[in-house]
Amino acid sequence: MATSERITARHCAHGLLGSIRVPGDKSISHRVAILGALAHGSMRVENYLCSEDCLNTLRAMQQLGATVTPGAAPQDFTLTGCGMRPAAPQRDIDCGNSGTGMRLMAGVLAALPFQSRMFGDRSLSSRPMKRIIDPLTQMGARVEACGEKPGCAPLRITGGTLHAIDYTLPMASAQVKSAVLLAGMLTHGTTRVHQPAVTRDHTERLFTHFGIPCSVSADGLDIAVTGPVDITARDITIPGDISSAAFWLVAASIVPGSELTLRNVGLNPTRNGIIPVLQRMGADITVSHRVDAGEPYGDITVRHAPHLHGTDIGGAEIPNIIDEIPIISVAAAFAEGTTTIRDAAELRVKESDRIATTAGNLRAMGANVEERADGMAVTGGAPLHGATLQSFDDHRIAMSFLVAGLAAQGETTLEGCGNIGTSYPGFEETLCGLEQA
Ligand code: S3P
Predict the structure, then answer these.
(1) Residues enclosing ligand 1, CB less than 6 A?
(2) What is the pLDDT of residues 122-171, one digit of tens each?
(3) Cα dist. 263→58, 152, 306 in Å?
(4) Considering only CA atoms, which residue is closest to atom 15 of ligand 1?
(5) What confidence tens digit (pLDDT) does each residue in 229-281 have?
(6) Is 161 left (phi over 0), alpha (psi -120 to 50) or beta?
(7) How far is CA 65 from CA 68, 107, 264, 299, 380, in A?
(8) Three-state SS for 429?
(9) Which residue of 133, 159, 195, 216 is most buried, as measured by CB atoms within 10 A?
(10) Are the C-beta atoms of 59 and 94 separated by less than 8 Å?
């Protein structure tokens, strides 16, 4: 079901209670579509994220020759790969709102012997692509940014035989790391990537799942892949997305009387930083039924935390919580004292400038926020009031402020919520269900 453009959240006088199953992980879904679509043979995919972003990647890979056979539910299907012989796409590839889809697929397309073109929506057409163009060009591909804004999409890629490189990432980015590793897996020799901080390692874990030779240094900063590889399909179940669970972790923490259990949520240690950050702020969060499959997952129970307090967030933990900073900032506005967020300048080049959009919306609700070049300082404790706010074309901003609206006085209306469906189809229904329960 499509998400409404305008959603209102009301002050919730009763606690948020119940059990929630959040949809499949977005980062893993993109990667499963890309790797499974290249493979030999068929695989069962369970709990794929049927959001616009991930469906765009799946459609793109179908253009390269993969086929999808529907299962009993939309999120479960059989993916049949093209047997490492992708076809040239007949049309331009629509990446919609997804930086992950575009950057990761660029890595694959750079190593294929044809020309392709990828485009996206207004937000994606203003996001930096030089960060993938540089390493892929060093490997021998021709990648042209044809957008109105320099260095931005649409991208025209003339791929072919590449050579392996050693590449030091200028910023901690799992997308750039993955673009280089995906190109490297299709290239003769060993491609090495050095990252300045550990970023989400789903690509490396999926390489292991598919038997692709990949090594990671003990500190997690250096990754090597040796190609060219031959991928064989292998069934996979995708855990729930901790970045979607994050909204309910904060909602239950700030609405008095709440207790929620979030089932089957991914707990990858390069992604689960929101749990220790909120615990440091005094949140009541416990993890149970932990399973260590290729990706760890488990159930998370969160209860209202009457005494949240501020904390300092920065350094190496930033890549681990990069998508959760808007909702952590909302928690900070309900916490006593000051929360400082630093080293997070990457937030300025997400679906919106998330430092500016988070700070602006928090202020509109009456919070005390100091915006900084690489983060912000939020001093909480005073009650927030409802407001009419913009999502700025950004799904996570929309969801963060709807959650804030549950604990603020009065009503909070978010305009431009349609793109919540890019990452969390069903968010609106879950929100309404919790409000009415
Ligand atoms: C992602 C990596 C992160 C994150 C994005 C998804 C991924 O971006 O913000 O939502 O799936 O690799 P960067 O790697 O550019 O920081």
Answers:
(1) 27, 100, 173-175, 178, 199-200, 322-323, 346
(2) 999 999 999 999 999 999 999 999 999 999 999 999 999 999 999 999 99
(3) 25, 38, 24
(4) 173
(5) 999 999 999 999 999 999 999 999 999 999 999 999 999 999 999 999 999 99
(6) beta
(7) 10, 17, 32, 37, 52
(8) helix
(9) 159
(10) yes
Which atom of ligand 1 is the closest one to the Cα of 323? 9
* DSSP string computed for 347-415: GGGSSS-HHHHHHHHHHHTT-EEEEETTEEEEEE-SPPB--EEE-TT-HHHHHHHHHHHHHSBSEEEEE
Strands (E), 244-311: 259-266, 284-292, 296-303
- pTM check: above 0.90: yes
Angstrom CA distances, 419 to 142, 239, 279, 407, 427, stand at: 32, 22, 30, 23, 11
| Residue 395: burial class (beta carbons within 10 Å; 0-12, 13-18, 19+) | buried
> In this structure, what token pair is assigned to residue 168?
């030091």
Please state the atom number of ligand 1 nearest to the C-alpha of residue 349. Answer: 15
Residue nearest to atom 4 of ligand 1 (CA): 323
Burial class of residue 83 in the structure, from the number of CB atoms within 10 Å of its CB (0-12 exposed, 13-18 middle, 19+ buried): middle
Q: Give residue 107 CA to ligand 1 midpoint distance, Å.
A: 15
Please give the backbone phi and psi of residue 215, each rounded to the nearest 5 degrees, phi first. -125, 150
Report CA(268)–ligand 1 centroid distance (Å): 14
> Closest ligand 1 atom to the C-alpha of 199?
14
Cα separation, 421 vs 405, whole angstroms? 19
302-328 pLDDT, tens digit each: 999 999 999 999 999 999 999 999 999
Residue nearest atom 5 in ligand 1 by C-alpha distance? 100
Please report the pLDDT score of residue 1 as a whole number: 67
How remote is the CA of residue 195 from the centroid of ligand 1, in Å? 14
Q: H or E stretch including 430?
A: helix 427-436
Residue nearest to atom 16 of ligand 1 (CA): 173
Cα 85 to averaged position of ligand 1 atoms, centre (Å)? 28
Task: Give the integer Cα–Cα distance in Å for 223 and 189.
Answer: 14
Judged by DSSP in three states, 7 sits in strand
Q: Is 343 a known active-site residue?
A: no
Task: Find the length of the chain.
Answer: 437
Q: Whose CA is nearest to atom 10 of ligand 1?
A: 323
Tokens matching residue 390: 């913009």
- How far does the centroid of ligand 1 lie from the alpha carbon of residue 144, in Å? 22
CA distances from 167 to 179, 187, 193, 316, 337 (A): 11, 14, 5, 20, 42
